[in-house]
Amino acid sequence: MNEAEYLRVESPDDSDDLTEVMPRRRSIEEAEMDITPMIDITFLLLIFFLVASKLDTQADVPLPPARHGTAASTQASVILTVAQGDGENALVYKGDGTRDADLVQATDLADQENEIAAYVRQGLDVTPPKENVIIKAEKGIRHREVSRVAQAVGSVEEVHSGGIQLHIAVLEVQ
Known about the structure:
By secondary structure, this protein is an alpha/beta fold. The chain has a domain at 65-172: Nucleotidyltransferase, domain 5, CATH 3.30.420. Helix content is 29%, strand content 18%. The chain has helices at residues 36-52, 109-124, 143-159; strands at 8-10, 18-20, 65-66, 77-83, 91-94, 132-137, 165-169, 171-172. The chain has a four-stranded mixed β-sheet, covered by helices on one side. β6, α3 (143-159) and β7 (165-169) form a beta-alpha-beta unit.
């Protein structure tokens, strides 16, 4: 039966009169919520944030502030990063930042200096040649650690025909 059809009921007072009764109600179906569009929006937002976010591949090193000095181009320089280590000696990284893949692997200090010198020599022999070496040391690194790395760079300067300018990186104060 559909809604247009009505039930007829005889009233007790008038047996001849037929009264109309309300149409039959449809059975109530359970309402289910379709969450497919919400899942789609969630994945779209996830993709948006993955694409829009900036991935920081290199950890920044907190540098001490500088009051005097000139800027050195990082593109025309070989960069070494000195960071706090677990023990007495600092960790030295080849390149800008403290990525584990760039860590100088030698544990002996003499072997470390040889590995640093080889990295600097390789960086200076590229085309176009790089003229500068920048040592970035974290704030709080002992001077002897920076001096040890500078000494390893100095051993390359003695055999390198062109002059090398050694720079210790600091944070520019404005």
